[in-house]
Every structure is written in structure tokens, then in C-alpha cells.
Amino acid sequence: xxxxxxxxxxxxxxxxxxxxxxxxxxxxxxxxxxxxxxxxxxxxxxxxxxxxxxxxxxxxxxxxxxxxxxxxxxxxxxxxxxxxxxxxxxxxxxxxxxxxxxxxxxxxxxxxxxxxxxxxxxxxxxxxxxxxxxxxxxxxxxxxxxxxxxxxxxxxxxxxxxxxxxxxxxxxxxxxxxxxxxxxxxxxxxxxxxxxxxxxxxxxxxxxxxxxxxxxxxxxxxxxxxxxxxxxxxxxxxxxxxxxxxxxxxxx
Length: 252
Ligand code: ADP
Ligand code: MG
Description:
alpha/beta; 7 strands; binds magnesium ion; globular
């Protein structure tokens, strides 16, 4: 059975999209059929993989019930990686979903018929704990939580963990944390090392061994519409995302 990972943190700019795109690309490159579902109306993952944010049908059509997930699958330049693209229309779902009872399960129900075609499915969440992120947490088996290695790293994590507990209790008892991921780590600074120590101390056993370094190549890759492993396969960012993909797969 395929495993579904939500990449979530209500903070923006912590590396969710970068992680979803690059872990998905690394796993697909390793030969496992992989699906990336972009459920952020900003559509950064969609565009970062070289696709338009105006494709139809897209994830909004799927969540609205106007298209099947099967119909909304698109290929990208990474062999073995399929994308269920986002679109700015998806912002409307934040208003529409809460009005419909049971709408927390829309994404899970839509993905059910196709989930076993993919060994791994990654859900790139928006920077909020709203209805779209809840849909992702209900659809997912595991959550990857990117944490930017900076001074306020731990702030907001309590809120995220509370939401996870609520979803586990009410909607998806099966959900577990795959791990917290330290991102944009600048090994030259004392601050980055201190933050890493603090996060590891707070959440022993939850933090991935692999740390993602701050790396210019990672930041550049989306503007070329490709993952960093295609942009520069041998840069430190690519090495780190390959290591992380192995660690994610090994944790199961
Ligand atoms: P989120 O999805 O959590 O909002 P992003 O993945 O979009 O965060 O990352 C925010 C910005 O930081 C983007 O411009 C991205 O390219 C850049 N970025 C992410 N990770 C790294 C990194 N390890 N090194 C350098 N830049 C990064
Ligand atoms: Mg994002």
C-alpha cells in the first residue's frame, strides 16, 4: 500500500514546498512511482516543477468534486513523478469547505482510488492550519514538519502539534509524525548549531538525522522549473535531499 506524507507547518517560508518537491523528485529518481499533490493556492510546487498554475483539471476541481484525481494527474520532467497541480482558485476552498459537513475528508476520499498506484505521495500544505491543511492531515499517514533553523524555530510548533493531536483524535487516528526536518541550516553560524541542539533536545527521536543546509542552488532551482537534483545534482543541497529521501523511506 502506498504511503501518504503531508509536509506541514503553519509558518510560511520554512521549506515545506522545497522539501515536498525535492523529496518527491529523489524518490521518483530512485525508481518508485511518486505523486506530488500541491494543495497551496500559491501553487509554488506546481510552478517549481515547471507546470502552469492554470492547468485544468487541478486540485481545486478534485476537492470540489468536479473532477477525479485520476483526471487531474499531470506528468512533469522528472521520470516517475506525477503532479496533481494547484491553482489560485484553490483559495476559494478555504471559504467553501467549512460550510460543508464532512468536507475534511474530501482529499482523502478523492485520493483513495489512486493511492496505491504510487509508492509515495507527498502533500505540499499551505502556510496555515486551515481547512486545506486539515484535509491533508486527514488524507495522510505521516507528517513531515520542516523547521527553519533560526531563532524562532520552536515558536508555533506547539500549535501545530495541538492540531495534529486534534486530527488524530477526531478524524485520523492513524496519523503519525514521520519527523521534524531542520532546514536552511547555516553550519558557519553558532546560532544554527544552538537551534539544532535545542530542537533535538526538545523532541528527541523526532528530528531527522539529515539536516538541509542553506544552499543557493536549492533557492535557484524553482526559477528553472526543476528540482535541485536536476539543477545541480552534486551540490550540497542535492546530497542532503537524497539523504533525507533515504531516511524517510527507511523510517517507513
Ligand atoms: P514554504 O513552502 O514553507 O513557504 P519554501 O520551500 O517555499 O517554504 O521556501 C521559502 C524560500 O526559501 C523559497 O524561496 C526557497 O527557494 C528558499 N529555500 C528553501 N530551502 C532553502 C535552502 N535549504 N537553501 C536556500 N534557500 C532555500
Ligand atoms: Mg510553500
